[in-house]
Design goal:
Glycosyltransferase, six-stranded antiparallel β-sheet, 12 helices
Length: about 475
């Protein structure tokens, strides 16, 4: 029986209703798609690019079918039909079978560059969403649309096979395995099922040694991992996916719980990929899953009545709502209340050896990652993070920015850093001022940090944070210890 609003519990209904009522405001009747909310959704100052969103409109269509209010099915059908028109049908091109990100972007040029001219991951995001629509609501879709969907499914698989996706690209690989198996079963191609099951085994092979994904501890992409693993268990496309997925889903939630601080409403670092520092200020997909467990008021999500960052990911909520979270009881307790002071240590991989460490106390979280000098800096990689309580109901944070590799270890109230080249610390806390940063001592609101290093600091105030820069020539080793007291 197809899922509807009556089949959802209260928390899940609340999440779905909040997402859809928010998304309804971006609907463009003339285009048959949602306007893009932009990175920061502000209805009083909409996205200046004036573009529509293809992938996120598919998520909205699923939500409409689940809500099933008057007119919802008709709108959903129109969206799916429109989305399919923006799929590339160009065999031999690297973007074959994926989709335009927005109708307003130009066609990829000759020698198109991945990520710059097209996004290959739209195949998996959009087609797994349509797979759910078929599994739940196929009887409500017209026959001509079903024919278009089947053709689009075949194109997506063709393009995905040509891409030769790496199983270590966890969130996409998990979706890819499901997409391949679903398409193979539906369209009668056993070789596609075999490819999907082979991908699943490769993912599990990487995971099983240390029970860790290559994309480790990502507030956004752990949410996508949870989605894909929920797909593996929710719909019978392959016994291989069902059996391997149940093990990974259980262990993933156990790992997330170790890093989660219910009072600070954040996941402790280190983060291999993150789009923000405070989940109370931006949408991280894992926060939507936690809403199912805790309800809105305790979920690590921003105030939805005010502008918030990474806004488009709130459109992901229908996928979360229709699948539901299967969280072990011991892990569930961590999302309800802080479960006490603890140290975390997790080997991620051996080649190179990567180890995550973290320290969580009542008002403080420290996160660190040691990569054996193999990981260079990027905007999404956070090998050093600090979060702490500021005042009665706020959170301060510190992150490290770097270009050359750094290795960091977290212990009780302590971070040890060994890096090469310049190290830049960004500090955000209500009431923080540059004069609070002195050589060897940072006296911040709610946190004091003692700094030991031979490097000389340069301090300046930026718009959103204080920047503490430790200049060093490229290749020069810089060592530092940061000891905290709250």
């Amino acid at each position: 029986m197809a899922k509807d609003m009556t089949s959802l519990d209260n928390n899940t209904r609340d999440l779905l209703a909040a997402s859809l009522s928010w998304a309804d405001r971006f609907w463009d009747e003339a285009m048959g798609l949602l306007w893009s909310p932009g990175n920061i959704a502000d209805l009083d100052h909409p996205d200046a690019s004036g573009s529509h969103t293809v992938r996120d409109s598919a998520w909205y269509a699923l939500g409409l079918l689940l809500r099933n209010a008057p007119g919802d099915t008709e709108r959903a059908i129109r969206i799916v039909d429109t989305v399919l028109r923006y799929q590339f049908d160009e065999p031999g091109q690297p973007y074959h079978g994926t989709f335009y990100r927005t109708p307003e972007e130009p066609h990829p040029p000759l020698a198109a560059v991945e990520w710059q001219h097209y996004d290959p991951n739209w195949r998996e995001f959009i087609m797994t969403t349509i797979d759910i629509i078929l599994s739940e609501y196929e009887k409500r879709l017209p026959a001509p649309l079903l024919q278009k969907i089947d053709a689009a499914m075949a194109r997506a698989v063709e393009g995905a096979l040509a891409r030769r996706l790496n199983a270590g690209y966890t969130n996409i690989a998990l979706m890819n395995a499901y997409m391949m198996c679903f398409a193979g079963r539906r369209l009668g191609h056993p070789v596609w099922v075999e490819a999907g099951e082979r991908m699943a085994r490769e993912i599990y092979g990487l995971f099983e040694r240390y029970h860790a994904f290559e994309e480790y501890n990502s507030p956004t992409y752990y949410g996508v991992d949870a989605y894909a693993l929920a797909l593996w268990r929710a719909y019978e496309v392959s016994p291989v996916l069902r059996d391997l997925g149940s093990d990974m889903e259980r262990l993933l939630w156990a790992d997330i719980a170790r890093y989660y601080h219910a009072e600070l409403r954040n996941i402790c670092g280190p983060w291999d990929r993150s789009y923000g520092m405070d989940m109370r200020r931006y949408v991280a997909v894992i926060g939507e899953w936690i809403w199912l467990i805790t309800g809105k008021d305790r979920a690590p999500l921003p105030d939805l009545d005010r502008p918030f960052a990474h806004a488009h990911d709130f459109l992901f909520a229908p996928l979360v709502a229709i699948l539901g979270a299967m969280v072990p009881a011991e892990a569930r307790a961590h999302f309800a209340a802080f479960q006490g002071e603890r140290a975390v240590e997790q080997v991620i991989s051996d080649s190179p050896r990567r180890v995550a460490t973290a320290w969580l106390s009542k008002t403080l979280m420290l996160g660190a990652e040691h990569t054996s000098g193999a990981r260079w800096g990027s905007s999404q990689f956070h090998p050093l993070t600090v979060h702490w309580r500021v005042g009665p109901d706020d959170v301060g944070w510190i992150r490290l920015r770097h270009r050359e590799p750094v290795d960091v270890h977290a212990g009780a109230n302590r971070l040890d850093v060994t890096g090469r080249g310049e190290l830049i610390f960004q500090v955000s806390a209500a009431g923080a001022r540059t004069e609070m940063i002195q050589p060897g001592l940072w006296r911040l609101p709610g946190l004091t940090a003692h700094i030991t290093t031979d490097a000389q600091a340069m301090v300046r105030s930026m718009e959103e944070y204080i920047e503490i820069r430790y200049p060093a020539d490229a290749g020069r080793t810089v060592e530092m210890t940061l000891e905290t007291e709250g």
